[in-house]
Amino acid sequence: MDYNFKEIEKKWQDYWQKEKVFKSSVSDAPKFYCLEMFPYPSGKIHMGHVRNYTIGDVYSRYKWMQGFNVLHPMGFDAFGQPAENAAIKNKTKPDEWTHKCIDWMKIELKKMGFSYDWDREVSTCDSGYYKWNQWIFLKMLEKGLAYKKASDVNWCSSCATTLANEEVIEGGCWRCHNKVELKELEQWYLKITDYKQHLLDDLKLLNDWPQRVIAMQTNWIGKSQGVEIYFRLKSNNQIIPVFTTRVDTIFGATYIVLAPEHPLVKEIIKDNPREKEVLKFIEKVGKETKVVRISSDIKKEGIFTGGYATNPVNNEDVPIWVADYVLMEYGTGAIMAVPTHDQRDFLFAKEHNLPMRIVIQPAAPACPAGRQAQSTDEMTEAYVGEGFQVNSGQFNGLSNQEAKIKIAEWMEKNKYGQIQTHWRLRDWLISRQRYWGTPIPVIYCKKCGAVPVPYHDLPVELPKDAPFTGEGGSPLGKVKEFVEVKCPECGGTGRRETDTMATFFDSSWYFLRFCSPEFNKEPFNVQEAKYWMPVDQYIGGIEHAILHLLYSRFFTKFFKDLGMIDFNEPFKHLLTQGMVLKDGEVMSKSKGNIVDPDSIIDKYGADTLRLFMLFAAPPETELEWDDRGLEGAYKFLNRVLRIKNDLKDKADHGLVKVMHKIIKKVTDDIESFKFNTAIASLMEFVNAIYQSGADERVFTNLIIMLSPIAPHFCEEIWQSLGNNGSIFKASWPKYDPGLLVETTVTMVIQVNGKVRARLEMPTDVSEDKLREMVLKEEKLKPWLQNKPFNNFIVVPRKLINIVV
């Protein structure tokens, strides 16, 4: 056969689709649910998509051949601001633009030969999908998990919408990177904090998730155990609660810092000579995002209020400051500052010439040069390690860990404070002031208040004729027929909510919809979900560690509470693939280093591209693009093809043994996603075949093992060998453990340091027998005959060095 990849790839893609080779349905067979994070339909797939989806495709095909009933679906995360922006720019409508992009992406995905069950395709912008977003929202509203409140929110002026804290990256919008500001609005929230303990505890169940992701979620949930200390305002004895996890340092607190938004600030500065200056500072900080304010890379700013508070443990009066790095929603909106034992406080105190006191002294070996600074003047940085209490009253001499417990109990007993647990996690802001998203199913009535849309009126569909100018807030508010409705309760005049849901709402449960995408009674068929879920293997980028993965876990726990599922976590195994780089940089249009998958497919074929992407680097690491690797992959496939022309009746026993070793190695490597070493083993196998020749059985096993990686190529060879149907209905080869045991070994024979022969010998041969075999070997006679051995050194199973 000739390797005309364009004809072969089109032929087998059509065959898979026509014969529905990868269609899945509930059966008695063991299931395997493999899922890659579905894409936003931008219109073109990029190399990141190719890598992600190829990883999942190889694993899915491998599982089919192992006898599993595989669910491997694909869909599109189709709502979002970029479609609105594109519609404005191209003078079209978001739905038309999005569906055009979806159609194009499907063509490209099919050209890669991915084994998706396209009958299960979902697009989150279809009303048949987002109807169930609204159903879920109403259920959350019923359970008290959805609520509306006014608060300062992150605002992207470029996208003209709000952002959740998780969507602000280094002070910018996660989509457009525009600088984010603060703005007060009434917004809808989901009470994810009701699940905080479950979300934290169940991380222990995720043994097959990357530890980096576990750590990121643990930190984001942020459980802290400490003491809420009752400082008192000197002017009127009013309590200022301050939460700390380092109560062992309370005797070293030399000032306290309030968030600019703290309600006590205006009371403290009223009629104070510093009032105008403090208000000006508060106004300045109000323009900064929370992410920028707490960033460790940016210098912290603050101002003295003119007020003082009393430290309850020693009755010292300490100055009250306001600073940008303290946020009202974290802790109590107030912190105690201990410059000697907190680096941020140390830098701030040095900047503003504030007092410091050492209260933890380490044991001598813990200090540079065997000593700790004896005075604050000697300190060049805060000491944050373990040690013993000093300058801490009756607690002097205790280890600071013991002191944490003793001081906390003492403070609680004397009502100086209270032992508490605090959390970093905040409720999830889902309101967005845009058109292209799921309408929030609420109607406002002057008489009845906020009224949920009845279930039988779902979906609340997006109007088709909304105006798009990019100015003046949500286009939904400008569509009279959408906004003006009757109240479902009293029949009076009502006004529909014009905010739409964050797109992360859509992706927080899509994996359940894939189980039964046509089901029209609930978001998913409970029985089918019971068979397919949880997802056995999930694949996607590390950038989703907090956003999508945390929200998906939250939704899963909510569905369990509704009695719709019986498991705690949505994804058993998680693989986070690395980025694709070119010239050391992530591929992007702005950097001009994009490699178009279409052009590579046209030149080399999809199988060559797949082979290169898998061989170039392990899935979890970054992949550096290299055109030379494509040439090598293409040549390797042609080298495999040529083997078919020289098959012999029976392969050598040595090659059969090599084959069984390769079967074990490739199986183990694919099972653990070590595709690059699996391919290296297949290349080694091909080299062995070229040395001794393969029979049809050996060649068939090679093709089966290569087929998940280069599926079109291997389907064609499979058919040319006289087989009917798809190769993916064949069974994955099994190795014979008995043939993995080495009975002979090749020994390298050196004479006076130079290699003179290689001899095949039994693995259990004695040294006397070795000498006898060496002396009889014809190849060695010119160097050994009639010459006494001065030395005969044996390195077991490797080398014999003879000195004559």
Helix/strand-derived category reads alpha+beta
Unreliable residue runs: 365-371
Q: What value does the average pLDDT take?
A: 91
Put simply, the count of helices is 26
Total count of strands: 32
Oligomer: single chain
Helix content: 25-40%
Distance between the termini: 56 Å
The proportion of strand residues reads: 15-25%
Largest sheet: 7 strands, mixed
**Cα Rg:** 34 Å
Q: Tell me, what's the shape? A: globular
Description:
- By secondary structure, the protein is α+β, with helices and mostly antiparallel strands.
- Helix content is about 35%, strand content about 20%.
- It has 26 helices and 32 strands.
- The strands form nine sheets. Strands 8, 9, 10, 11, 12, 13 and 16 form a seven-stranded mixed sheet that branches. The chain has a four-stranded parallel sheet with strand order 2-1-24-25, covered by helices on one side. It has a four-stranded antiparallel sheet with strand order 4-3-7-17.
- Helix 19 (about 605-615) packs across helix 22.
- It starts with a helix and ends with a strand.
Which structural traits does this protein have?
globular, 804 residues, alpha+beta, 26 helices
Question: Could you write a compact summary of the structure shown?
Answer:
The protein has 26 helices and 32 strands.
Task: Present the secondary structure layout.
Blueprint (H helix, E strand, L loop, with lengths): L4 H15 L11 E6 L10 H19 L3 E3 L9 H10 L3 H18 L15 H16 L3 E11 L4 E3 L4 E2 L2 E2 L6 E11 L5 H6 L9 H11 L1 E11 L5 E6 L10 E4 L4 H7 L5 H11 L4 H5 L7 E10 L4 E8 L10 E4 L5 H10 L7 E2 L26 E2 L10 H14 L3 E7 L4 E2 L1 E2 L9 E4 L3 E4 L27 H4 E3 L6 E4 L3 E2 L1 H4 L3 H4 L12 H7 L2 E7 L5 H15 L9 E7 L2 E3 L2 E2 L10 H8 L1 H11 L6 E2 L2 H17 L9 H19 L3 H18 L3 H11 L4 H10 L23 E8 L2 E9 L4 H10 L4 H4 L6 E5 L3 E5 L1
